[in-house]
Amino acid sequence: MTDKFHSELKNLKSGVSEMARFALSMLQDSQDAFINQDDALATSVLDRKDRLREMTGTLEENCYQLIALNQPVAKDMRTIVCSLKVIAASERIGRYGKSTAKIVKEIAGKPHIANMMSLPLMSEYVLAMIDDSVTAYEAENIKKLEGFSARDDAIDALRHSIFREAITYMMENPKTITQATFYIIIARYLERCADHACKIAENVQYMETGEMVEIK
To answer: Which pairs with CB-CB distance under 8 Å and at least 24 residues apart come from 68-74?
Structure first.
């Protein structure tokens, strides 16, 4: 492959990394807005959705052009394929941040119940998984992906715990139904974001080793 191709591939990876970090910031800020009932921060997350869509389209097009014009093979091809998967996962993560921000606006001003049912802890775990998966992509190093399956299991357990606790509060006090339902929804969003982190991790593993593994 030519130096020009490898320069363009390096620029692609930089752009994908920037998008992944942008999406992560949307999720992070939406969680902070939820925890602190920060309506202004939620609005800022919603304002970023158009930029997320633009980055998705531009970077996908760059991937397709690199494939069409250069016909890459081996590690270079795996890097482009992985980049496409990271773009798709990042777009979903950012959209979950947007959806969470919408919920923040729905429950703004209403006191939290049950210390938010472990949602801040779940959020912390999920954000760390996303960060580690993106770092692995950036560094082309799978070291940070060790133990991902166990981490995903812990997040699944937290979601089930939050669901059970929310149902208990609903049964004991019908006035909590709306807010507890939103807590269940946010927990589900976080679980899905962890799944997307796992998908990024799987594809980084493939990019680096040529071996496709399933994290479950």
So the answer is: 70/1, 70/2, 70/5, 72/1, 72/5, 72/9
DSSP 105-118: HHHTTSPPSGGGGG
Positive or negative, the Cα torsion across 93, 96, 100, 102?
positive
Q: Select from 8, 139, 11, 15 the least CA-distant residue to 72.
A: 8
Q: Which two tokens stand for residue 194?
A: 């962890």
Classify residue 210 by its DSSP letter.
S
| Cα 186–chain centre separation | 13
Q: Is the dihedral of CA 56, 58, 59, 60 positive or negative?
A: positive
pLDDT in tens, 8-65: 999 999 999 999 999 999 999 999 999 999 999 999 999 999 999 999 999 999 999 9
Structure tokens at 134: 């993106």
